[in-house]
Amino acid sequence: SLSGIKVVVDAGNGTGGLVAPKLLKLLGAEVVELYCEPDGRFPNHHPDPVVEKNIADLIAKVKKTKAHAGIGYDGDADRIGAVDEEGEVIWGDRLMIIFARDILKENKGAKIIGEVKCSQTLYDDIAAHGGVPIMWKTGHSLIKEKLKKEHALLAGEMSGHLFFADRYFGYDDAIYASLRLLEIIKKAGQPYSTKALLKDAPRMTSTPEIRFDCPDEIKFKIVDKAVEAFREYPSVTIDGIRIKFDGGWALIRASNTQPALVLRFEAGDEKRLKEIKSVVEERLNKIIKET
Prior knowledge:
The protein is of the alpha/beta class. The protein is built from 8 helices and 15 strands.
């Protein structure tokens, strides 16, 4: 039962609004509904809950109603966005920490899969709680395939696609993911708090995904040259190159869906983040000029 839990649900005028509020109420939760009427024109905001401007109303409503959490769905409810009771966004890799810890309590040694854009904190946390972390390529079909191949219990990516093979069928169902989140909040006991679930998870400083236009015919060449250019650093090259620096990392990969390069940076603090970024950008600019 989810009685005692108050949640704001923003279905973004997508299909999730037909199911999620009813289901949550049946389980005893108090539900505050936002944009739960399906409307394919999406009059209130674009239904992408991992873009902060699209969940501005959700954040405001959580604060105003003093809810324990806020949940956003994309148009077909296979991607989840979440905010804590203070309206702070819980990005995909932080959500994965919450779910991984819960699964690993009962399933020591379970494999859990993230993607190359996820924080190093996720992989470290999985290992610290007795799991086997696996870093894999970005792309929801690729992640789903890897989950099946590895018999992993959980997989996910920054886009909000979360795949549960623990007590579920191994596909990305954001309504199911939201039930799991609220169940964990409830199990943790009063005072109910989403923020408390992550209080001991280290916070890194990171950039959002940085995309810049790059023609399809050269984007993979540039990434291949970047792999050569950063050869002296330890790196992961399953999807572009994720370069490991002291105290942080950088990712350079070609988008699978657009003529673009995708970069992401993470470090322990802002100063180190800037240093890593400048090293990478300097070499990358040189590669682009020469290609």
